[in-house]
């Protein structure tokens, strides 16, 4: 038995077409996998911290190289604009006070303009320095003895708005508010009875729980990439199964 074979067409053109198909497949695979890894990391943030962490979630960004054209050796980069935050919650970091200070000052949210749920001026915050300068701040120890609640006295201000609701002020530095009328009234009665607003928690150190798995997301992406590349190359070269 004699077997014979011959190449149909121009071999150089056939190989060049295959290389171009490989370049398109490589770019498509890297682009899709980069987007999937970024999407997974964003979901990790929102599932761990809730909807209030969308800013941190959206800080994950991605880029594929080369930015234009095709290549058999593309690269995908996923990074975050808040690396210190991500690193702390991936490692479960232990955070201590620095610079000779004994305590970390952790805001409760009431230090924001119009309070924790208010809609005051964007970016307005009562700082620890303002707490000290006010001369009104006082401490209440935790029952555990591990730290303190740093408070300002609560007082009533003027009545404002069509409903003539009484403004509640923390030491004259920040207006306190809640999200709805019933909640505001119930909360206000309790706070007035206590006569104080918890502005900061003072703790010597904080151990963050490990909530993120950045390394795992990257490793899963690398394991998926070869299969994604082969499937894309078959589509680009016309060998995909119908």
UniProtKB/TrEMBL annotation:
Q: Which domain of life is it from?
A: Bacteria
Q: Which InterPro entries match?
A: DUF6441
Q: One Pfam match, by short name?
A: DUF6441
- Protein name in the entry: Uncharacterized protein
Native species:
Neoroseomonas lacus
Organism lineage reads as: Bacteria, Pseudomonadati, Pseudomonadota, Alphaproteobacteria, Acetobacterales
């Amino acid at each position: 038995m004699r077997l014979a074979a011959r190449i149909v067409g121009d071999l150089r053109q056939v190989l060049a077409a295959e290389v171009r198909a490989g370049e398109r497949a490589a770019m498509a695979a890297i682009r899709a996998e980069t987007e999937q890894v970024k999407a997974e990391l964003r979901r990790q943030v929102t599932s761990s911290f809730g909807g209030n962490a969308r800013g941190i979630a959206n800080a994950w960004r991605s880029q594929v190289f080369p930015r234009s054209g095709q290549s058999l050796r593309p690269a995908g980069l996923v990074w975050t604009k808040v690396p210190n935050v991500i690193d702390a919650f991936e490692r479960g970091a232990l955070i201590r006070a620095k610079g000779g200070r004994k305590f970390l000052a952790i805001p409760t949210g009431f230090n924001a303009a119009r309070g924790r749920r208010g809609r005051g001026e964007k970016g307005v915050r009562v700082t620890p320095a303002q707490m000290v300068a006010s001369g009104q701040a006082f401490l209440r120890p935790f029952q555990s003895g591990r730290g303190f609640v740093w408070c300002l006295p609560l007082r009533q201000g003027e009545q404002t708005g069509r409903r003539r609701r009484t403004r509640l002020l923390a030491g004259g530095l920040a207006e306190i508010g809640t999200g709805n009328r019933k909640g505001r009234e119930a909360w206000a009665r309790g706070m007035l009875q206590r006569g104080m607003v918890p502005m900061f928690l003072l703790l010597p150190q904080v151990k963050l729980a490990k909530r993120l798995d950045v390394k795992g997301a990257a490793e899963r992406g690398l394991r998926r990439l070869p299969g994604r590349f082969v499937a894309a190359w078959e589509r680009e070269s016309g060998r995909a199964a119908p």
